[in-house]
Amino acid sequence: MDSLYSIGKVILGFGFIMVLVGGLLMIAGKVTGLGRLPGDILVQRGNFTFYFPVVTMVLVSLLLTLVLNLVFIR
């Protein structure tokens, strides 16, 4: 019974993290310029659109790396 309690806590923890990440993504979508940086690839041909945010992904990756390294300093 104790293992079910532990699994339940882990699932709730992941759920809470997913809610936070979802909220941050919703807020980040409203930030002007994020996702439309120079270097992001946008191809529009007729009714086809391809968007690949290369520079945005690199920037977000660097920011997350910095934040996580500050949080998990040993």
Structure description:
A hairpin with a 2-residue loop joins strand 1 and strand 2. The model has no long low-confidence stretch (mean pLDDT 87). The chain has two helices and two strands, in the order αββα. The chain has a two-stranded antiparallel ribbon with strand order 1-2. It has helices spanning 2-30, 54-71, and strands spanning 41-45, 48-52. The chain folds into two domains: 1-31; 37-74. The chain has 74 residues and is an alpha+beta fold.
What does the secondary structure layout of this molecule look like, with pairings?
Layout: H1 2-30, E1 41-45, E2 48-52, H2 54-71
Antiparallel strand pairs: 1-2
Describe, in short, the structure shown:
With 74 residues, the chain is an alpha+beta fold. The protein has two helices and two strands, in the order H-E-E-H.
Number of domains: 2
What distance lies between the first and last C-alpha atoms, to the nearest angstrom? Answer: 34 Å
Given helix and strand content, the structural type is: alpha+beta
For the largest sheet, list the strands in their spatial order: 1-2
CA radius of gyration is 18 Å
Written as H for each helix and E for each strand, in order along the chain, the element string is HEEH
Oligomeric state, counting identical vs distinct chains: single chain
Low-confidence stretches: none
Mean pLDDT: 87
Quantity of strands, as a count: 2
Number of helices: 2
Beta-strand residue fraction = 5-15%
Largest sheet: 2 strands, antiparallel
**3D shape:** elongated
Helical percent range?
55-70%
